[in-house]
Amino acid sequence: MKAIIPAAGLGTRFLPIAKAVPKEMLPLGDKPVIHYVVAEAAAAGFDEILIVISQGKECIQHYFAPNPDLERHLEKIGKLQALEDVRAVSRLARISYTYQKEMRGLGDAVLLGREFVGNDPLFAVLLGDTVMHQSSPLPAMRAAWEKWRQPSVCLERCPAERVSKYGVAGGTLREDGVFTLDRLVEKPAPDAAPRLLSADGVPLPFHAFAARYLFTPQIFDHLENTHAGFGGEIQLTDAMEQLRLRDGMLGVTWPGKRLDIGNPAGLIDAARLY
């Protein structure tokens, strides 16, 4: 199966280092952040991957590509474990790349994968600056797809004072860990977040998107018809809402820990776990 990993953002919160090192290539333990994202996708069966990059992020390509000269050198000097570690990176998945030439938002980055996805009935989107610690929600999301044949988004509980930072979903509990969503809103104001965004049957009132999605190819039609909003960006949430209205959408909760590496504080917190 196929997955799209958007990784084209400028990483302005990491400037000036982001001028030379993409945030997705910052180290988390002994590997860059995006390594964990690719490994997660591949382990869940999404082993054909398109990474959306921008100019200046070619080091992502270099990281996942074979390096015969380095491999020969490591073999020559007897660094066999290092040799195996290097080879394992290029064997993680079949990876291709495309460029997002203008920063027009997450929705535009996903839309660039239309030709890559083709007529496949289902594909995943994993944000390239978010690591799921110890486990992945993708198996549960795939199980929900097999049962109900509806696209889904991973959800995590979100207190009301933080809803303005995330896309947020409301719905009703279908079964343990799975919601039928009835509305999606991108970064609602805390004092204006409508009550219908609350999710029945849980102690906290809101659920936020948690950086993992399973879509059908119909999302591309909705992305093409989505008008650019603030800053000229195409919001993925707007297209998701249209897809939900047409085909329904599930929210799959996940008990693990999401590590947002999109800001320096998040990277510092994540580093304590690796």
List keywords for this structure.
single chain; 274 residues; alpha/beta; Spore Coat Polysaccharide Biosynthesis Protein SpsA, Chain A; 2 domains; five-stranded mixed barrel; two-stranded antiparallel sheet; 13 strands
Provide structural commentary.
This protein has two domains: 1-132 and 258-274, Spore Coat Polysaccharide Biosynthesis Protein SpsA, Chain A; 136-255, Spore Coat Polysaccharide Biosynthesis Protein SpsA, Chain A (Alpha-Beta Complex). Helix content is 32%, strand content 26%. The protein contains ten helices and 13 strands. The chain has helices spanning 33-43, 58-64, 68-76, 80-90, 105-111, 114-117, 138-148, 218-224, 236-247, 264-271; strands at residues 2-6, 27-28, 31-32, 48-53, 94-99, 123-126, 130-133, 152-158, 167-175, 178-186, 206-215, 250-253, 257-260. The protein has a five-stranded mixed barrel. Helix 3 runs antiparallel to helix 4 (80-90). The chain is globular, with a radius of gyration of 19 Å. The model has no long low-confidence stretch (mean pLDDT 92).
Helix/strand layout:
Layout: E1 2-6, E2 27-28, E3 31-32, H1 33-43, E4 48-53, H2 58-64, H3 68-76, H4 80-90, E5 94-99, H5 105-111, H6 114-117, E6 123-126, E7 130-133, H7 138-148, E8 152-158, E9 167-175, E10 178-186, E11 206-215, H8 218-224, H9 236-247, E12 250-253, E13 257-260, H10 264-271
Helix pairs in contact: 3-4, 5-8, 8-9
